[in-house]
Amino acid sequence: MIIALDGPAASGKGTLAKRLAQHFGYAHLDTGKLYRAVGLAVLQSGGDPENAAAAESAANALVPSDLDNPALSGDDAAVAASKVAAIPAVRAALLAFQRRFAESPPDGAPGAVIDGRDIGTVVCPDAPAKLFVTADVEIRAERRHKELLGRGETSIYARVLQDLTERDERDSNRAVSPLQTASDAVVLDTSAMDPDAAFAAALAHVEKRLKDASDR
Ligand code: C5P
Questions:
Q1: What is the distance between the alpha carbons of residues 170 and 177, in angstroms, rounded to a whole number?
Q2: Strand, coil or helix: what is 27?
Q3: Averaged in consecutive runs of 10 residues, what is the pLDDT profile of the chain (216 residues)?
Q4: Cα dihedral across residues 57, 39, 14, 130: positive or negative
Q5: How far is the CA of 15 from the centre of ligand 1 (A)?
Q6: Among 107, 112, 171, 190, which residue has the least CB neighbours within 10 Å?
Q7: Which CATH number fits domain 1-26+110-216: 3.40.50.2000, 3.40.50.300, 2.40.50.100, 3.40.640.10?
Q8: Of 118, 111, 149, the residue nearest 3 (C-alpha)
Q9: Are 4 and 120 contacting, i.e. CB atoms less than 8 angstroms apart?
Q10: Which residues line ligand 1 (CB under 6 A)?
């Protein structure tokens, strides 16, 4: 059983994905981390994340322990991630890892919750439950700004808003696997919802889809 969650940065999909995974006892894969790890590896080797050859070789060299690097949550990694994510060879290299996770979730989990930008459209187009989680960009920037401050990092709201706007633009307009709503996904706009309300709405949808799938 696969639950696919897509949406723009800081829409709340990561938090939702974790809670859904915990609720159902499923494994969770945050696919943004894969792209962040590739972007960070290129930056750390002194390369340019827009250089296709450097990014492809970093994607091919990725090992699971790279996903535990705390530096992945930083904004440098996020910006580099959205640059390497536009390179077709990088997406192709990461696709196999994501599909394997979906087909055989780790630790014998009976299902997987996978969040990203193209899970319902490209990685798992047959997922029975798909959510597209979104929120107004100013609200997402505010949440992200507070999260950074809460972690004791320096953050300037205007800079966060600009980064998110540019990232949305790159993610939505790239030629390969752009951020878009799958035709069979339910759109969940969390602009006016707190995390509990967003979880309740997501859970109601997923439970309905799981029931429909088991009735079939
Ligand atoms: O979700 P997160 O903000 O961590 O993702 C970082 C970047 O990785 C995104 O801005 C996007 O460019 C890229 N990404 C992607 N496809 C995914 C997940 C993330 O292109 N499935």
A1: 11
A2: strand
A3: 95 95 97 97 97 97 92 90 96 95 95 97 96 97 93 92 94 91 96 95 94 84
A4: negative
A5: 15
A6: 107
A7: 3.40.50.300
A8: 111
A9: yes
A10: 9, 31-32, 35-36, 78, 81-82, 85, 116-118, 167, 171
- Cα gap 103→91, rounded to integer Å: 18
Q: Where in the chain is the domain with CATH 3.40.50.300?
A: 1-26+110-216
- Ligand 1 mutation target, pool 42, 117, 122, 164, most atoms within 8 A of CB: 117
36: its two tokens = 């962040």
Count other Cβ atoms within 10 Å, centred on residue 112: 26
Tell me the DSSP string of 109-140: -S-EEEEESSIIIII-TT-SEEEEEE--HHHH
Given this model, what pLDDT does residue 104 score? 94
Amino acid at 214: S
The interaxial angle of helices 13-24 and 195-215, nearest 10 deg, is 50
Rounded Cα distance, 175 and 90, in Å = 13
